[in-house]
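Need tokens for this chain, all 87 residues.
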Amino acid sequence: MSSQINPSSRDTASNQEHVRTPQNENKLAGSVILFVICFALFLGAIYSLSFLSLGNPWPMAVCLVLFALAFWLPQTIFGRSDSAGEH
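Here are the structure tokens for all 87 residues:
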């Protein structure tokens, strides 16, 4: 995949604006922080299963909520799911 910007990817109204490419879309620190948060949610979901028993269904409910948050947050709140089709 080429990192060059072709004329069709620029905004015709203003050539002075910042053009978003995959190389400058986000900062490394933001990506690392987002990864740590989502991975902690995922590990918390797995850890909650250690308390699961037939008499106590709440660890499974906690697992499902944390697991859903681990995937929902980056895709909706942080807006990382909509960048694949831009380039």
